[in-house]
Amino acid sequence: MRAAPKAIREITGVRSDALPLDILTGNEPIVFKGLVANWPLVKAGRASVAAARDYLKSFHNGASVAVTLAAPEEGGRVFYNDDLSGPNFEQHMARLDIVLDKMVADMGNAQAPLAYVGSTTIDACLPGMRGENDIDLGARDALASIWIGGKSRIPAHYDLPDNVACVAVGRRRFTLFPPEQLPNLYVGPLDVTPAGQSVSVVDITNPDLERFPRFAEAWGAAQVAEMEPGDALFIPSMWWHHVESLDGFNVLINYWWRQSPAHMGPPVNVLFHALMAIRDLPPAQKAVWKGIFDHYVFDQPEGSLDHIPEGSRGVLGAMDERNAQRIRAFLQKRLSR
User: Which Pfam families match (predicted)?
Assistant: First the structure.
C-alpha cells in the first residue's frame, strides 16, 4: 500500500479581492479554503446540480464549445490510445446549453460516455458571469477559463502560466509534483498530446511500478489537495498536476497569467528547436553548446557584456518587444531556408 502524499498547505480567511502577492509570485502550491464560497455559482451547485446547470445556462449566448467524448470503458481518463499515437476520445462542437442538459441527464448512467468541456474562455460563451463570479488578480492580465464535466481524470501535466483554480461545483482532487520530478513521471510524446500539453503516461490512481519504477520517487515528492466547492488552489508555473473530478457534475474556473511579458514567447519553442539542432550532435559538440547556453542564457556572468557598448549589443541587449521582434525576424529568415 502506497503512503498518501503530504497535503498541500492550506490557508483560510483570504478574500477573493485581496490575494497575497507573495503567494502569487512564489513557487509553493497553496489551497485557499473557501476563497470563492460566496460565488452565486457555488451556492447554486450546493443547492443542486440542476440549479448549477440552470445558473450557467442563464448566461449562455448561444455559442458552441469543443466537447470531449470518451467511451465508458476509459473510466473517465482523458488520455492516449493504446499506442500513444493519438487521443482516446473524440471531440465535437456543440451548443453549451445542449451539452449541459445532456451531462445532467446522463448522470448515473454507467453506459454514457464521459462528456467534458475543457479550457473554454468564459467571456466567449458565458458573458456577464464573471460579473458575479470572479477574483481580483490586480494588474495581472489573467485568462479566465471554465471546465465542465462528469467524473474525469486528467493526467499529470504542466502549464507555463501560473494558475489559480477555483472549484465551483463538485469535488476535485489535485495531485501535484514539483518540476524536478520530470524524469520520474514518464512523459509521453511532446508533439502528439491528448490536449495540447505533454502528459505523464503513468496512471497515478493505479501505477504499474514494474513498468514505471521511478514513479515511486515522484510519488514520494507529491502533494495532494482534496477540494470542496468554494476552495481554490494556486498552482505555480511548471508544476505538474493531475486532476480528478470526483462527482457526477463538476465545474472549475481557473485563471492563468504569466510573470513574463508576452513578447518573450513560449520557451517550449526553444526545446523543439534544440531537439532538432543540438540533441543528436556528437558529444563533444553538445558539451560546447551546453557551455554556450550556460554563458548566454542560464548562468550569464555579471559584467560579461561590458566589453560591448550597450547600443551595439543587438540580440544580447535587454529583451524588450523591439529586440524580440528582431530575433523573430532572424529566426524566420533562418528557418525558411
Answer: Cupin_8 (PF13621)
The arithmetic mean of pLDDT across residues 123-129, rounded, is 97
CATH number, span 6-259: 2.60.120.650
- Strands in 89-95's sheet, in edge-to-edge order, are 10-11, 30-32, 232-235, 162-169, 250-257, 143-149, 114-121, 64-70, 89-95
Alpha-carbon span 257 to 254, nearest angstrom? 10
Are 266 and 160 within 8 A, CB to CB? yes
Mean pLDDT over each residue of the chain, to the nearest integer: 95
Phi, then psi, of 265 in degrees rounded to 5: 80, 165
Domain spans of the chain? 6-259, 263-335
As a whole number, mean pLDDT of residues 101-112 equals 95
